[in-house]
Design brief:
By secondary structure, this protein is an all-alpha fold. The chain is 80% helix and 0% strand. It is built from 17 helices and no strands.
């Protein structure tokens, strides 16, 4: 029996289902690589934020850093989706991991010789954002190709667990190493993580099929992708929710280091613990989702998780006590796991195979709007303060999201492949 056949056998328990997925060699390598990448990505975002805050003492510049990280997703997401439908996905992963090594190595050198300037960090953040948007649809499309529609919920839940562990370990290690070694230690650790991830990608044998047989001109592809995504009621609803969430909720994470220092009065070590707190809740939630043998109403988990996350972050912004703030971000993480696990899952199940990468590219554009949201909350934080900017942004987001969720099919109908959908 081949590895793929073994992974496809029906199982009766959570551990057997997860073991079946991880027995697939290429998926296992992809999963481990994703864990290293997630740890590095969450770690470098915290290190960069604290570094820019240390260099500039400016909430706006910390938010500006967030904009540089997410602006590539806003601008290039559809292009990356087109690439995912046509290109060698393994080569894309190799390119992305190589850029991560080079960008991190450059920052390590500048920090070590004490010549680092904010603009250096902004440029590195931009390039790291570019590789994330490049990988985003290719990696997820490759996962779908490896495991299929029946096992995609389990696979994406494992991905969420992966991301969650990285989101905990990355900020925690960032705060700890900054306290012990300054900013040099974290960058030594980061470059080691990215080098190991690059080596593991080289070991992946599968290259991923090229789904699209017709090379459409760019603007025709943009038109097709936009038209296809907007005509599909389920995909359209996910895109609308994602747009609002990332503009007004995800974007406020850029200000967490500022809230920790200026509002809660803690240093780098406790800031790292605070930022890693959502990962604890996310790990619990993702484990529960992964244990589900069958999920029909993906949209209900998606919307419930979204609401729980935003309400918890709103209460976090209002909390003056560090321990309560940590607990609230744990609860936010509980909801975030349900939202993130179902976000790409719903898109992939609801899309035609040849349009899957393009639909994920459209999703990427909606995620990338966080760049503009980060700039907006940075301006408000500069005028008022960081915690007020967070509270105002989340409140507006909740007001806008309620009618979208109520009138969409996400809560009312089960998610099904296009050939089974009545939409």
């Amino acid at each position: 029996m081949t590895e793929i056949q073994a992974a496809a056998q029906p199982t009766t328990s959570w551990s057997q289902r997860m073991k079946g997925l991880l027995q697939h060699r290429d998926y296992r390598l992809l999963w481990v690589t994703g864990g290293l990448d997630n740890t590095g990505r969450w770690m470098d975002s915290v290190v960069m934020g604290l570094l820019v805050l240390d260099l500039t003492d400016s909430a706006f510049q910390v938010a500006l850093l967030f904009m540089f990280r997410w602006s590539p997703m806003l601008v290039f997401a559809l292009i990356s989706g087109m690439v995912a439908d046509r290109a060698n996905r393994w080569a894309i992963l190799i390119l992305a991991r190589s850029v991560a090594v080079v960008a991190t190595g450059a920052l390590l050198l500048l920090v070590a010789i004490n010549t680092i300037e904010p603009w250096h960090v902004f440029i590195a953040s931009f390039f790291l954002g570019c590789i994330f948007v490049l990988e985003f649809p290719s990696r997820r499309s490759l996962i779908y190709d490896l495991v299929g529609s029946e096992r995609i919920v389990g696979a994406m839940s494992l991905e969420t667990i992966n991301s969650t562990v990285g989101k905990f370990a990355g900020p925690f290690m960032a705060g700890l190493l900054i306290e012990l070694t300054g900013f040099t230690g974290p960058y030594i650790f980061l470059i080691a993580v990215y080098i190991v991830a690059l080596i593991l990608v080289f070991k992946i044998e599968g290259r991923g099929p090229i789904r699209s047989g017709t090379a459409y001109p760019f603007w025709q592809t943009v038109s097709r992708g936009l038209s296809y995504s907007l005509k599909n009621n389920v995909i359209r609803s996910v895109l609308m929710v994602t747009f609002i969430f990332n503009a007004l909720s995800f974007s406020v994470e850029s200000l967490y280091p500022v809230v920790a220092r200026d509002h809660l009065g803690v240093g780098a070590g406790l800031t790292g613990i605070l930022i890693s707190a959502p990962a604890i809740g996310s790990l619990l939630s993702a484990s529960v989702i992964a244990s589900l043998a069958v999920v029909r109403y993906h949209g209900r988990i998606f919307c419930l998780g979204l609401t729980l996350q935003m309400v918890s972050v709103l209460l976090f912004a209002l909390s003056p006590w560090y321990p309560i703030s940590v607990v609230l971000l744990m609860v936010a993480g509980l909801g975030a796991a349900g939202f993130s696990a179902m976000q790409t899952t719903i898109i992939m199940i609801s899309s035609e195979p040849e349009m899957r990468g393009t639909a994920l590219g459209m999703l990427g554009h909606c995620i990338g709007v966080a760049a503009l949201g980060g700039l907006g909350v940075g301006v408000v934080a500069n005028i008022l303060n960081a915690q007020t900017a967070v509270a105002l942004s989340i409140t507006l987001g909740l007001i806008l999201l309620v009618p979208v969720m109520v009138f969409s099919p996400l809560v009312k109908k089960p998610t099904s492949p296009p050939e089974l959908s009545t939409n």
